Amino acid sequence: MALYHHERLNGSGYQSGLTGDTIPISAKIIAVADVYDAMTADRSYRSALTHEKAMRHLLDNIDVLYDRNVIQTFREAIEDNSRNLYDKNFSEDVPRMERRCAE
Fold first, then answer.
1. I need a labelling partner for 67 at 20 to 30 A (CA). Which of 10, 43, 73, 96 fits?
2. 49-99 pLDDT, tens per residue?
3. C-alpha pair distances (Å), 93 with each of 33, 47, 77, 90
4. Helices 94-102 & 25-39, crossing angle to 10 degrees?
């Protein structure tokens, strides 16, 4: 997951230039969680974006940068908030999200 989580569906990511289904599902999940976390956290060069703006970026890039099933599952998980995803413990949710993405 660590090696491939910067890969993007259209090949614009980095490490190996993987595309589409050649990117492991776990890496796709971590990529979405990582991007969301990076956008919604304060940085030295900018303030955190709102949940709405971060989700807009993800939704605008479905099937371009991010996997459709991963985005939909991530969105549902955040909206359900049954596991309190805002606590940043995303790694505990990867196996559950993998199963939901495969459905």
1. 43
2. 999 999 999 999 999 999 999 999 999 888 776 555 555 555 566 677 777
3. 10, 26, 9, 5
4. 120
SS3 per-residue string spanning the chain: CCCCCCCCCCCCCCCCCCCHHHCCHHHHHHHHHHHHHHHCCCECCECCCCHHHHHHHHHHCECCCECHHHHHHHHHHHHHCCCCHHHCCHHHHHHHHHHHHHC
Q: What is the pLDDT of residues 19-35, one digit of tens each?
A: 999 999 999 999 999 99
50: Cα separation from own chain's centroid: 16
- Which phi and psi (to 5°) does residue 70 adopt? -65, -45
Q: Please state, in angstroms and rounded to a whole number, the distance separating the CA atoms of residues 61 and 64.
A: 5
pTM: 0.80
Q: Can you tell me the distance from the alpha carbon of 19 to that of 16, in angstroms, rounded to the nearest whole number?
A: 9
- Residue holding tokens 């919604």? 40
